[in-house]
């Protein structure tokens, strides 16, 4: 089952709009304000874009090293590859936690 970031965010927003504990709306001190001005969807999109950029840089360095570019060292290439790998693994773990949370929310009785 493929879950996109935007569809997950929309589903969570609809669920938030439907849930009011005992019919009482929370007062202003209970609400958390988003002071950064960014929403979750844009932050997630930006993070995925950063991972993509790291992978593109790693691929570019690998290609340049294979082509014999003397300005690219093996250590730079390996470091870029490891950065991209760690960033990708972190993204996969975040995705897994989001899917797990989504499944848990959807299995809650209403």
Automatic annotation (TrEMBL):
User: What GO molecular function annotations does the UniProt record carry, in alphabetical order?
Assistant: cytoskeletal motor activity; structural molecule activity
- Could you list this entry's UniProt keywords, alphabetically sorted: Bacterial flagellum, Cell projection, Cilium, Flagellum
From the UniProt record, give one GO term of the biological process aspect: bacterial-type flagellum-dependent cell motility
- Principal place of residence: other
A GO cellular component annotation here is: bacterial-type flagellum basal body
Concerning InterPro entries, the annotation shows: FliE
Q: Quick check: keyword rRNA-binding in the entry?
A: no
Concerning Pfam families, the annotation shows: FliE
**Organism domain of life:** Bacteria
| Subcellular location as annotated | Bacterial flagellum basal body
- UniProt record similarity statement: Belongs to the FliE family.
Q: In its UniProt entry, what is this protein called?
A: Flagellar hook-basal body complex protein FliE
Tell me which species this is from.
Answer: Shewanella loihica (strain ATCC BAA-1088 / PV-4)
């Amino acid at each position: 089952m493929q879950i996109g970031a935007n569809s997950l965010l929309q589903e969570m927003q609809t669920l938030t709009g439907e849930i009011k504990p005992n019919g009482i709306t929370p007062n202003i001190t209970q609400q958390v304000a988003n002071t950064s001005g960014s929403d979750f969807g844009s932050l997630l999109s930006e993070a995925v874009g950063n991972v993509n950029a790291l992978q593109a840089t790693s691929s570019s360095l690998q290609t340049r090293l294979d082509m014999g570019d003397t300005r690219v060292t093996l250590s730079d290439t390996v470091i870029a590859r490891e950065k991209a790998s760690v960033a990708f693994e972190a993204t996969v773990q975040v995705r897994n936690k989001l899917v797990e949370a989504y499944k848990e929310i959807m299995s809650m009785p209403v």
